[in-house]
User: Fold this.
Amino acid sequence: MSTDYRPMWEELGIDLEAHDTLMQVLGQGYKDVYHSQENRPEGMKYLDFVITEVHGLRIKELVDARAEGRKVVGTFCVFVPEELVLAVHGICVGLCAGAPWGLEEAERYLPRNTCSLIKGFFGFQLGKVCPYMLASDLIVGENTCDGKKKAYEIFAEHVSDLFVMDMPQMKSEEGRAILRSEYVKFLKKLEDVSGRTITVDSLREGIRTVNGKRGALHRLSRLRAADPAPISGLDALLANQISFYDDPPRFTDSINKICDELEKRIEAGQGVRPKGAPRILMSGCPMAIPNWKVPHIVESSTKAVIVGEESCVGERGTRNLVDDSGGSVEALVENIVDRYFEIDCAVFTPNPGRLEHVREMAKDLKADGVIHYGLQFCHPYQIEAGPVERALEKDGIPVLRIDTDYSQEDVEQIRTRVEAFVERIEG
Assistant:
């Protein structure tokens, strides 16, 4: 970063010394993981720039927007409808949760056997190193799992305004009614916080903006079906991760430009791996920035390429669009509910749609095997991993289950297992 953002960070309440340490570690980690790749698309330079300025220029944009009266809404989950935030001229951003920061502080409030993601966002907030949290006017939680549900009770004591939405656990008429009720409450909360009333035009514009962003990511996903793969799994994951932070129209434009470049690569038969390289589908828990551990192991230690992510930071979070044809706010809200109720999160029971989605992605992307990624103590995905593995293996699709956390202690163990898995695929 060429600009000195320290006065801005200090005004937000950032612990400057701790933040300097964090940025140094993350900056070096990014270089080690991403700059070591070969044959990257030129368009990835934009996403490299975003990462360089993720705590700098982007935060300044949020601070400037707040000075103009706009509200910043921080979120943890894809069940929070960005369309509603945009409809009050707000800005929706993802919050820091992808690194093992401030674990000692977090474990003063949480059991050690809590998943890394929950301990991660506690540690970032308690350590005062996440400018997105400190720049948010409203933070939105969601009761997707028992861990988050109870953690939010404590987390509310450490943020200025936390709004928690209840999530249905079954895909039934009653479950849909719960989701609709919570979205209506969220809509009213946004109107109260912003002082704006959501209109048909503002909500339709919000829907179209988010549809555009998801449409660009859909295009990227489809292009990854080519052999040779025109982009690495790491770079595609980065695009999905940055979609939670960047300005939506700017991000959409940058991803479409990358897709233009990838189409030319495909026409020329160019890829990040040779034609016929083993193709891996990642499935399971979300990977928030800077959680690149397992994908980096896969693509740096083997000849394989990751061609898709069945994840909240991937196709599970972006696969469907919202119908924007409603003639009233109520009708458009119903369309939003319809779209989000299709998300096949592992918290639902039963959840056959997720298995079918994995099968569909494996077929469409011509995957040779699936790596099921689970965060330790994330019980919904860890429990669901068994049935998914058995069903896919029965279909003839090899599966490797990896349960891990954010630490680097098990890297070599995972590397050995991944290398053996790829050898199994190669026959």
About this structure: The first helix runs from residue 6 to 12.
